[in-house]
Fold:
Amino acid sequence: MANLPSGSGVMEMKRTSFVCYGAQGSKDALVYQEIPGRDGGEEFFLFLSPGVPEQEAMLRTLFREAVSASRLGAPAHYFSRFLEQFGALAAEAGGEGDVLDGVLIMIEIRRGNAVHVLCNRDAVLVHGDGRTGRRGSAESLKDFSEVPIGRARDQGDLFRRAPEDMFSLYRFTLAEGEHTVILVPSNEFVARYDESLRNSVFFPSFEFPRDMGMDLAVSRSFPALHWNGGQAEEAARSEERSVSGRTRVNVPLVVGALAGAVAIVILIGSLVTHEKTRGPEQPNALLDAADAARKDSSDPGGVEGSSTIVEGEPAVVERGRRLDLQEAWKRAFEAPVTSSARYCRGRIYFGCRDGYLYAFTAAGELAWKYRSGGGIGASPCCAEDRIIAADYRGALFCLDANSGKALWSFSTRSKIVSTPEHFDDIVFAGTTDGRILAVRLADGRKLWDRKIGPSIRASLAAGKDYVLAVTTDGTMVRLDRRGRIIWKTNVGAGVASSPACDEERDLVVIGAKDGAVHALSLSKGKRVWRYPADSAVDGSPLCGRDAIYIGSKSGTLYSLSFEGTLRWKRDVGGAVLSKPLIAGGIVFVTTYTAELVAVDAASGETAAEYRASAPIYSSPVTDGKCVYFGSNGGVFYAVRLGAPAAS
Structure:
């Protein structure tokens, strides 16, 4: 451990820097923190961990530059300069590999209760609320939002991936009470860099409970930050609280010699991919669930006498009555199932981050599986007797729906996370480097390729003479079948939501990070209306027969008229990052708090809830008898629909 001298400013800052060495001394995690003095000031935390030894020299230089750089002014300016310096060093380093292979980066600046955090985009920020004991995505924090990185976008030519595809800058406000925020590698990140991470060592700041109801890729220590929001900093440092029967002293992450004592070799834990591999729950005051996760009940044989729900039928529940949701079957996999399923001709198709595309029968029997070159997060699309899918390595491929035999494959040379779409004889795909490609359905031959923006992560929409795409900076583009731009507009905020089109009403509906639902003219691209929601709207809209349904990050499901007025809204208990499903007068929506929620489409009253074992990112689909969806815990569910008998 090396102690750096304090600065000569008016406020005395406690500064500590140290290195955790890898098992063979080959990989170092660089950690630095400045802790506010008694009179307040800025907290600064820096964590850099290389994935391979070749990155050490670059990261050590970056570490020194980041520590010594001035942080006067807006935090976003500091982070922008950090990325520019990173780009310059990466360009000097050269090499064929991605400069971020296996690297984990986290930088935090806190001024009072305002916090900014820069981290890998493919890592996860987990938040623990000390008052309630709840744990979940950091997006639950007050005023949580993503801040555009700004000037760093000009450095795109220095990276294999553009900076905004590599890093995220978040801001939030600490509310009253205790908070813990931890940087955790996502399952996708771990799967991609498993070998690098396996031999790496990270700052031992937090030990995860092995059964905490969350889909985390690791169980051992990763950088954690502890705060007591809404109170004086001196009191926050000295106050002791008793939580869940345990007393914990609120101390900063790095505390002098104690930090050096705990900076020992801690190898990365084994992957936590689904509930079969998790051990007994280990209590922890900040990250334990407020209520114990319910044990899944399994009935592979299904439920006798269940009714069938088909789109267009009257609602199966009357006001005040509940729908019966019971598990028909479930299947566990070795990686998250974030790909939304597709039901076509009696089979359910979905991708998995284990690199396979699966086909199951409605009874839960495996029909076939196809091994792709990379994890599959995008949903497949059906084209008669063909299935089209895409993977993280940029392969767009077409399979025979009956046998799973590969018919053709096309390399886009860029990661694909959005669902490909087709219309007639053309397949369209969007890439994370901001391109739309069109290939022939018959043989996969490329027809055209056009760059439209920084990155495409939302699914495409295609019709008779249009393909519609939206980029992460909120730019929406309509092209014709030949790739010519018909119109281009910006909704004024970042977008993760996929557009929904209603051709008869000449309407395109989309959610945005500005906390609003936007409706544009499909023919002209002009704004028609804007409805303000209660938080960022990353979920995708569903344009039903009579209304629009869409969910927000705060867990509100909205039913809007096609004129943009509120019909009803319902709290579904957790962030909605998926697209709702409507069937038989019931709206089904999945949440990031691991639930499938059924809501009466007419009244907005909750009709039923089904609890899964991990957060759900995928959208539900139905064959009229069951609702199907995958979870981030690597489990795919079939939930049977049945209306309870009248009392």
